[in-house]
Amino acid sequence: MTKIINRYILREISLPFFMILFVLTFVMLMGKILQLMDLMVNKGVSFIDIAKIVFFLMPSFLIFTIPISLLISILIGLGRLSGDNEITIFKASGISLYQLLYPLALASAIAFLMTAVTSLFLVPHSNHATKSLLFNIARQKASIGIREKVFNDDFKGLLLYVDKIPLHGNFMEGVMISDKRITREPVTIFARRAYLVSDLSSLTVTLRLENGSTHMVETNLKNYRKMDFSFYEINLDIESSISDGKKAITKDIKDMTFGELVERMKSPSLEETLLRELAIEVNKKFSIPASCIVFAILGIPLGIRAHRSVKSRGFTIGLFIVLAYYILQLGGDALVETRSLSPLVGTWAPNVIFGTVGIYLFIMAAREKPVGFHLGADFLKRLKGSGAKVKDRS
Predict the structure, then answer these.
(1) CA-to-CA separations, 292 to 26, 55, 117, 129, 350, in angstroms, rounded
(2) What are phi and psi of 77, to 5 degrees?
(3) Is the pTM of the predicted complex or chain greater than 0.85?
(4) Which of 46, 293, 312, 382 ranks highest by number of CB atoms within 10 Å?
(5) How far, in Å, CA of 353 to CA of 294, rounded?
(6) Furthest-apart CA atoms within the chain: distance in Å
């Protein structure tokens, strides 16, 4: 009998979980859709590469959507059971709320493992794979997008003109460049030949010029400078040609695995600001997955309260809890970065606070006792009643 009830409860929360997970992940992906469409339509990126980018972006969304989906699915599933008086029937049959905890604990444990694996392994590797893929796309675009006898302004601060490109495309001839990146006065560069050289280790593309000269005229037109060279290299800002993101030269903190973060923290002469950022990321590797358990504990007592509009109520309460949780998390991160709190306290405070509230509400619901805000409401009613009696006596 118990196994049947456990499977029944799991089935009630499984369907809403996967539906909400799909919707939330799709909504978060919509924020990147315009940028991805620009890559496909205006930058000539293939559909396969776009699909790879979407696939690599999924883990960074799932670490947030899995806990949120679990919370809302518990609120909807238990709300439906409570609204149809099935929770009351369970209690009348001798099944306590503690016994109903087993299938929900299993669901939260599975969600915890999914989020932990995503946070510890999938997110770092997918973030780095995304940057590598964007680099490869930009490198191909740099070689393919440059056409002869056409001015190219895809690279930030550079205007590039090529007179001739051989059929094999290994080099360019008759190159002219207007460089505005360093000084206000543009530097004009002429070169007989140029090569594109890419470095996967540093994710950079360099334009290597041969046998040319640089020319610069000051604004007042009084001074003119010329420099002849045999070899001259220009680093191309390839990422600005495909997105407005940060430059991916080195591995970012969010791209590091747990072992890499710990190893980086052990390095000597590390700045305190960077050390705190690393400590925040290390703790988040575990605090975000732990939110699955916290949300499950908090969702059980809130979900069993009967209400007619079960789904809308579940969404509203769930979104309110998630909003409060992540606001508290952002506040904790800010306090850690300003040295007001330790990284351990700042990152784990939301779980401790919401977990404590959830345990209290769960115990009160299991004992079928009113919680604190119900007692406060009763106190206000009694206070109003006593005030009315005083007026009648007067």
Answers:
(1) 20, 23, 13, 27, 12
(2) -65, -50
(3) no
(4) 293
(5) 9
(6) 106
- Residue 316: pLDDT over 90: no
- Residue 34 structural domain: 2-138+256-380
Q: 68 with 166, same domain?
A: no
Task: Report the C-alpha gap between 263 and 258 in whole angstroms.
Answer: 9
Q: Domain check: are 12 and 115 in the same one?
A: yes
**The two structure tokens encoding residue 157:** 């601060």
**391 within some domain:** no
Q: Beta-strand (E) ranges in 10-125?
A: none
Which residue, 207, 236, 265, sits at the end of a domain?
236
Both tokens assigned to 25: 């992940």
Total structural domains in the chain? 2
d(Cα 263, Cα 97) in Å, to the nearest integer?
45
Mean local confidence (pLDDT), 15-30: 92
> Tokens for 170?
């290994």
Q: What CA–CA distance (Å, rounded) separates 77 from 74?
A: 5
Identify whether residues 161 and 120 lie together within a single domain: no
Which two three-digit tokens encode residue 373?
């805000």
Give the single-character DSSP code of 214: E
pLDDT at 387: 54
Q: What is the pLDDT of residue 318?
A: 87
* Residue 225 in domain: yes
17 and 111 housed in the same domain: yes
Is residue 368's pLDDT more than 80? no
